[in-house]
Amino acid sequence: MGTNGSETTALERAENLRALALGCLDEMKAEETIAIDLAGKTSLADTMIITSGRSQRHVGAIADRIIQDMKDKGFGTARVEGLPACDWVLIDAGDVLVHIFRPEVRGFYNLEKMWGADRPVGRMAG
């Protein structure tokens, strides 16, 4: 029933990656962060994290930090889209997808509604 060695299971790896990303977002003062559990709903990933940065510079800094921390902690190189514009950066780390938006761009795309999750602080896009 599995190994008792130093190997981590896919589930442990996914949870460690999720925790790393959420920790980075907290440290970088990302705003309105939500994590959506996708396990069993799609083969895209187990977790989708959606968050906001205050500006393009903040979005870029958050993305750079997550990417660097993933490399430093042995998770390899994630696929990244949206740099250098930094309106919406997607970090695809396999088990975890991280979407980092500027607030007005996040409101326009409203991924939370698409994936059936409510935003922590609701604002109607108009």
UniProtKB/TrEMBL annotation:
Pfam families: RsfS (PF02410)
InterPro entries from the UniProt entry: Iojap/RsfS/C7orf30, NT_sf
Cellular localisation: Cytoplasm
Superkingdom of origin: Bacteria
Gene Ontology terms for molecular function: ribosomal large subunit binding
Annotated keywords: Cytoplasm, Repressor, Translation regulation
Gene Ontology BP term (one): negative regulation of ribosome biogenesis
Family named by the database record: Belongs to the Iojap/RsfS family.
Function: Functions as a ribosomal silencing factor. Interacts with ribosomal protein uL14 (rplN), blocking formation of intersubunit bridge B8. Prevents association of the 30S and 50S ribosomal subunits and the formation of functional ribosomes, thus repressing translation.
Assembly notes: Interacts with ribosomal protein uL14 (rplN).
Protein name: Ribosomal silencing factor RsfS
Species this protein is from: Methylobacterium oxalidis
